[in-house]
User: Which sequence fits this backbone?
């Protein structure tokens, strides 16, 4: 058996990023096992006196659409439209799922009801970014004849309206072999390509699919042999044997830190490096990858370009906690960060955060971050001559949130607040200096004397102020706390202020 194998450099080309410009016209039919993902977050500070187990002090809870629903959410967050087809039970969890789906702008949900089944619920307990425990509530594993009929009616309608079909198999019964046979026949009759995120040991049930996306462990199980995910040749051989045995066009093997391998029926293989810079949680990463892959293919991209886009998307999502989604903006920013890291290593200049002068534009950007489950912090000031005190506030603010916006007073505002001799540096210079700081994600130049309007527009999760204020006296504190956010006061470092620095400069020049 001979194959042609290429290991592609991470920066070989970035044309694949243009795929998302066509996602708005794409519709993906997502069919599979939907579930409710619950996350319980808190802190562990002691061991239970009743048993040698940690005690989780609960601080907050989140509930999201999981399983095939998370694949649909990723399709929607990428800018495409999703038709989600799945089965639920006649229970409260199903009602909660429907409410969550109704809040999604780009997802149409068609949930068949199995009166003999139950909605799948997974609950994860998380402390200090680490999962302690997961509890599962699964359905019976098989569908009634009535549920099967209802599912297939929804499948036919969704497939007819879609450009591509995504099968999200979590092994919970919706994609059982007899049902899969009917679904594949429907897709074939409609001429729709099928992308599969598989779970079954026997991949022959997915015969007729365009591409499968098993991870390294799933690939080894399907191949019936131990496979070192770091071994390009071993992964390629196993993938090619499965492709040819079961009539797939391609197989995309995800290999964790060792990247992604794309194998075609013609024996070609392309190995792409992993893109994640820091891994916090792999929950749902496969959903993100297969959703981005389906969108890329439906948008007219080549398989390798679509896989590169999907690989970049997965590299972003594993840096988030919980079942998460990604946006084209984040993927582009991550790709730019990769390019920047290579540039800096070669002696180039580091990245700068974006600078905007519109609260509405800042709110649009931060709303995207918040939709992806990221907490947004805001701090503000004149930042005329950047000093150690400023850096202390900014550093502590960024440590307390996922994304930090630094709002800087415009020149006219500084003159009103500080007098006609200030600012020493104009607003563009001050903003550029702030944007170069690693802890800053966005800089907003604002014309008002207080940040009240921009805080109302951005609605941050965290408001940070340097000084000796009480939290309730900080401008905008009422807006932040009313929506469950918090206010943090960072004491000023003694001996560090722009006014004192300017005074010393003036004295030395006398």
Assistant:
């Amino acid at each position: 058996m001979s194959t042609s194998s290429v290991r592609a450099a991470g920066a070989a080309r970035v044309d694949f990023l243009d795929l998302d410009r066509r996602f708005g016209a794409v519709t993906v039919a997502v069919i599979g096992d939907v579930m409710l993902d619950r996350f319980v977050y808190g802190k562990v500070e002691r061991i239970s006196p009743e048993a040698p187990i940690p005690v989780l002090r609960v601080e907050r809870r989140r509930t999201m659409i999981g399983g095939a629903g998370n694949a649909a959410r990723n399709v929607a967050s990428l800018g495409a439209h999703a038709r989600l087809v799945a089965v639920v039970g006649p229970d409260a969890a199903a009602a909660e799922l429907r409410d969550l789906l109704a809040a999604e702008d780009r997802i149409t949900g068609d949930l068949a009801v199995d009166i003999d089944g139950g909605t799948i619920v997974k609950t994860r307990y998380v402390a200090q970014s680490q999962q302690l425990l997961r509890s599962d509530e699964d359905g019976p594993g098989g569908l009634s004849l009535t549920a099967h009929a209802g599912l297939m009616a929804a499948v036919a309608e969704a497939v007819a309206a879609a450009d591509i079909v995504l099968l999200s198999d979590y092994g919970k019964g919706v994609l059982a072999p007899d049902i899969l046979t009917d679904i594949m026949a429907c897709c074939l009759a409609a001429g729709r390509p099928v992308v599969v995120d598989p779970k079954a040991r026997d991949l022959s049930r997915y015969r007729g699919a365009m591409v499968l996306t098993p991870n390294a462990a799933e690939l080894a199980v399907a191949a019936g042999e131990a496979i070192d995910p770091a071994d390009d040749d071993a992964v390629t051989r196993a993938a090619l044997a499965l492709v040819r045995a079961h009539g797939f066009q391609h197989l995309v093997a995800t290999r964790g830190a060792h990247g992604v391998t794309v194998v075609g029926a013609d024996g070609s293989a392309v190995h792409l490096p992993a893109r994640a810079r820091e891994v916090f949680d792999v929950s749902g990463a496969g959903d993100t990858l297969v959703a981005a892959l389906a969108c890329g293919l439906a948008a007219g991209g080549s398989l390798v370009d679509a896989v590169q886009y999907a690989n970049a998307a997965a590299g972003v999502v594993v840096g988030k906690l919980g079942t998460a989604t990604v946006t084209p903006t984040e993927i582009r920013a991550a790709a730019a960060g990769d390019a920047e890291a290579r540039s800096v290593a070669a002696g180039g200049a580091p990245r700068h955060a974006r600078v905007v002068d519109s609260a509405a534009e800042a709110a649009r950007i931060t709303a995207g971050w918040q939709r992806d489950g990221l907490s947004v912090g805001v701090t503000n000031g004149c930042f005329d001559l950047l000093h150690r005190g400023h850096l202390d506030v900014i550093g502590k603010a960024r440590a307390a949130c996922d994304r930090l916006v630094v709002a800087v007073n415009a020149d006219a505002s500084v003159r009103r607040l500080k007098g006609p001799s200030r600012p020493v540096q104009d607003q563009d210079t001050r903003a550029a200096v702030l944007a170069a700081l690693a802890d800053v994600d966005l800089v907003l130049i604002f014309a008002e004397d207080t940040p009240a309007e921009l805080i109302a527009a951005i609605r941050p999760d965290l408001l940070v102020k340097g000084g000796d204020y009480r939290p309730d006296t900080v401008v905008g504190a009422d807006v932040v706390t009313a929506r469950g956010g918090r206010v943090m006061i960072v004491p000023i470092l003694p001996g560090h202020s722009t006014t004192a620095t300017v005074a010393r400069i003036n004295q030395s020049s006398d």
In short: Residues 328-345 form the longest helix (18 residues). DSSP finds 16 helices and 20 strands in the chain. Residues 4-342 form a domain with the UDP-N-acetylmuramoyl-L-alanine:D-glutamate ligase fold (CATH 3.40.1190.20).
